[in-house]
Amino acid sequence: PSKTSFVIVMISEAMALYETERLLSGLYQHEIPFSNIIVNQIFPESIDCKFCQSRRNMQLKNLKEIRYLYEDDFNLIEVPLFDTEIRGYEQLKKLGKYLFQ
Length: 101
Prior knowledge:
By secondary structure, this protein is of the alpha/beta class. It has one domain (about 5-100): P-loop containing nucleotide triphosphate hydrolases (Rossmann fold). About 50% of the residues lie in helices and about 20% in strands. It contains 3 helices and 3 strands, in the order βαβαβα. It has helices at about 15-30, 50-70, 90-100, and strands spanning about 5-10, 35-40, 75-80. It has a 3-stranded parallel sheet with strand order 1-2-3, with helices on both faces. It is globular and about 45 Å long.
């Protein structure tokens, strides 16, 4: 293609948010184009696991901050945590539904 763009992939955790801020600074500094930020592995709402619910609550807090910082300026894509590894055509189609909606 005649034009390429960097795609940022992060998780919804405080350290990842800090690392993304540093990455964005470097991309701006070197004039590398980007417009997409993917937030990966978000826990689903209906979880019966106490640990998982605790992680989800933490993610939601960070996701609120991520949305505040990036939602207006970037294409922000939220991808859930899948119960299986993404391997093979069918799993890629499943992932693609989130990436290309």
